[in-house]
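Example 3.
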Amino acid sequence: MSVYILCFVLFCIGLYAVLRKRNIIKMIIGLGIIEYAVNLFFVLVGYRAHGRAPILAEGQGITNMVDPLPQALVLTSIVIGLAVTALIVAIAIRIFEKYGTFDITKIRRLRG
Amino acid sequence: MILPIFVIIPLAAAFLISLLGKRIKNLSDLLANLGTLGLLIFSLYSISLVTAHKVIVYKVGGWIPPVGICMVLDGLTSFMLVTVNLVSFLVTVYSVNYMERYTDKYRFYTLFMLMLAGMNGIIITGDLFNLFVFLEIASIASYALVAFGTGSEELEASFKYAVMGSVASSFILLGIALLYGYTSTLNMADIASVLSVKSNSMIVSFVAVLFLAGFGLKAALVPFHAWLADAHPSAPAPISAMLSGVFIKTLGVYAICRIFFNILGVSSQLLFVLVVLGLISMVAGAFLAIAQRDIKRMFAYSSISQIGYIIFALGIGTPLAILGGLFHLFNHAVFKSLLFLNSGAIEYSTNTRDLKKLGGLNSRLPVTGYTSLLGSMSISGIPPLGGFWSKLIIVIAAIQAGHVWFASVAILVSIVTLAYYLKFFKNTFFGKITEAWLKIREVPGLMQLSMIILAAICVVSGLLLVPVFKPFLESAVNTLLLGNGYKDLVFGALK
C-alpha cells in the first residue's frame, strides 16, 4: 500500500511544481514528474509480488506472472510524454528569445 | 471496412504533405482539401450505414475486442464525424487563401491533418487507452498550431495551453490506470459490462471525478477555462475555427458523453454536477465576453458560454434535453467556426481585430458582413435560424424537468449573448467608415465560398428537426439514452 501512497505523493510534488514555481523550466520539470508518477502508478497496477516476467515458454503455465499490458501501455505513454516535453521545451526557448526571461509572472502580454 | 478510413486518410495526408509539400507547390493545398472532402463524403455515407446496421464494430488487426482494440460506429459516432468533417472541410477550403499570410503552409497542413486524425480517432475508437492516445495526438498538434505564428503572444498562449492540457491528460491517464486496476480491461464495452456486475465502489466515483476534471479542462468548463481565452484567439483564424468549433466538443463534450453515459453510468448527483458546471460556464462566459475589445477574444469567451449550454442540456438528462444539447453542439460547431472565419477575414483585410479601431466595414466587405450577420443572429437565437431551435429545445426541456429557474437563467444569458453580438456588429460593420478602411477589398473567392456555405448551413440547420432528417439526430440521442445497453449493442454486433 505504501508504494501507492508514495506514488501519489510524487504526483502531488509535480502538481505543486507546476502550480507554484515561477520559472517555466521548473514548471516543465514538474510536468515530467507528474507524467512519471502516473506511469509508475500504471506499472504498479500490473505488478504482483514475486511475479515473473510474462514470457510463455514451453511447459510453463500462466501462473504468477506480472501483467504485461500496463507495461506496453506505459511505453506508449512515455513516448507521448517525450513528444509533449520536447514541444514545451521548444516553446520555452522561443519564449526566452522573445521576452528575455523565464519568469512566468513577467510573461504577461495576454490579459482580459 | 469503412471505419479505419477516418483515421487513415488524415494520417496519410499528413505524411505525404510533410514529405512532398515543400518540393511541389500547391500539393499541400490539394492533398488537404481532397483529404477532408473524402472524409466528409465517408462520414455522410456513415449515416446510411448506421440506419441500415445500427452499429458496426471493426476489429483492429483481427483480434477479438476484449483482447484487441476495436472501432465502433454508432449513432453518436456518425453524428460527431459529420460535424467534425464538415467544419474541417470548409476550414481547409478557407485556409488555401488565408494561410498565404504565414510562411511554411505545408507544415500548417501537416499539423492540421494530424489534429484531424486525432479527433476522428477519439470519436471512432472503442478502447479507452486508444482514446487517450488519439487525445494526445490531437492535443499536441493543437499546442503546436496555437504557437504557429511564433509571435510573443502566440508562444505565451501556447505555453499556458500546453501546461494545462498536459496536466489534464495526466488526470485522464490516472483515471484510466485506476479503472484498469479495478476492471482489468480497457475495452469500453467490456468495462461497462464488468462495472454492471461489480458492486459500486468509491474507486468508480474517484475515477469519475478525475475524468470530469480532465475532460472538463479540455472542454473549457468554467473552473477550468483560463487557457481557452488565450489559446483560441492566438491561433491562426482557421485553427481558431477548428478549436472552438469542433476541438473542444470532440475532446471534451463527446468524451464526457461517451464515458459517463455509456461506460461509467450516470447518477443523479453527476447529472446535477453537469447542470451546475454548465450554468456557471454559461453565465461567466457571457459576462466575460461583453467586456472584450478583441473580436476573437470575445468569440472565445462566447464559446465557453455556449459549451455551458451543451453541458447544461446533457446534465438535465431527459431525451428532449439531450436532443437539444446535441443539436446545439452541431449548431455551435457551424456558427462559431463561421464567426471565427469572419474574424479572420476582417483581420485579413484590415490587419486589426480591435473593435475600437474598426467600423463601417459593411460597404467594403459585404460578404463577410452578411455572413457574420447570419452567424451572430443564429448564435443569439433569432427565430428562423438554427441556434434559435436548439436553445428553444433546451429551455423547454429544462422547464419540463422542473428546472424553471435554470431555464430562465438560460434565457437571460441568451439575451446577454445578443447584446455582445450587437456590440461586435455595431463596432465593425455599421457606423461611419474610417478613412483607413476606404481602400480595402473583399477577401479572395475561396474564403468567401466557405463563409457563404457555413452561413447557408446556419439558415437551414433548423431543418434537422424535420421528420426526414430527424433520424440523424435521433440515432445519436438514442445511443446516449441506451446508457449501459451500449455494451450489449457492441457485443451483439460481434456475434
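The mean pLDDT of chain A is 88. The helical segments of chain A are 2-20, 24-45, 68-99.
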